[in-house]
Amino acid sequence: MDERETEVRSEFQVERIAFFSDAVFAIAITLLVLDVDVPHLGREAGEAALMQALLDQIPKILGFVVSFLVVGTYWTSHHRFFRWIQGYDQALVWRNLLFLLAVSFIPFPTAVLSENGAQRASLLLYAASLILVGITQVSVLRHVQKHERLRHPAMPAGELALIQRRAWTAPVLCCLAIALSFVSLMAARLTLVAIPLAVRFSQRRAPRP
C-alpha cells in the first residue's frame, strides 16, 4: 500500500468518525423534544384548560431549548475541531466515543430537571452530566494536542486552545451552579440557562478559521 493510498484511507476513517458523531448529536437533540408533551384535552375542555396545559409545559420547553443550545454548542465545537483532523488512532476513537456517550445521556437529566425543577438533586444530576461532557471533550482535544500527526499542518495557531476554552466553559458554570444550588436554586438555574451565551462569549474575540 503506497503513501497516497494510506492517506486516502486515513481520511476516509476520519470522515466515518465525524459522520457517526454527527448522527449521535442529531439523535440526542431529537430526543430532547420528545419530553415535551402535547396536551390531550377532551372536546368539552375550554380555552382556559388548553392555556393552562400549555403553561404547564413551560419548564419542559425551557429545558428543551437550553439543552438544545448546549448540545448545539458542543456540536459546533466538534465540527470545527474535526475540520483539522487528518489522522486517527484507537485512543482518539475511544475518547471520542466516550464524549458521545456523555452527549447522548443529556436528554435524560434534561427530562429529570424539567419534571423536578424544585428539587436540588435534579439540578445536580443535570450539571454533573454537562461536566462529564466537557471533561470527555477536553480529553479528545488534549490527545490531539499531544499527537501532532493527527492534526492538519494548516491548523491555525491557538485553534485548539480556543476550542478547549469553549469546552471548559460549561463545566465551570455547572460547578458554579452546583455551589449556588445550596444557596439559591433560582440562581443556580439562571447560571445553567446562561451556558450557551457564555460559550458564545468565550469565542467573541477569536479569529475566524
The helix-strand sequence is HHHHHHHHH
Q: What does the average pLDDT come to?
A: 85
Number of helices: 9
- What is the strand content? under 5%
The percent range for helix content is: over 70%
Low-confidence stretches: 1-6
Quaternary organisation of the protein chains? single chain
Kindly name the structural category: mainly alpha
Shape: elongated
User: How far is it from the N-terminal to the C-terminal residue, by CA?
Assistant: 34 Å
Q: Largest beta sheet, briefly?
A: none
How large is the radius of gyration? 20 Å
SS elements, strand count: 0
Structural notes for this entry:
By secondary structure, this protein is an all-alpha fold. The protein has helices spanning 3-33, 47-56, 58-82, 90-105, 107-115, 120-146, 159-181, 185-193, 195-202. It has 9 helices and no strands. It is elongated and about 65 Å long. It starts with a helix and ends in a 7-residue tail after the last helix. Residues 1-6 have low confidence and may be disordered.
Give a summary of the structure in a few sentences.
By secondary structure, this protein is mainly alpha-helical.
Give the helices and strands, then pairings.
Blueprint: H1 3-33, H2 47-56, H3 58-82, H4 90-105, H5 107-115, H6 120-146, H7 159-181, H8 185-193, H9 195-202
List keywords for this structure.
about 210 residues, mainly alpha, about 75% helix
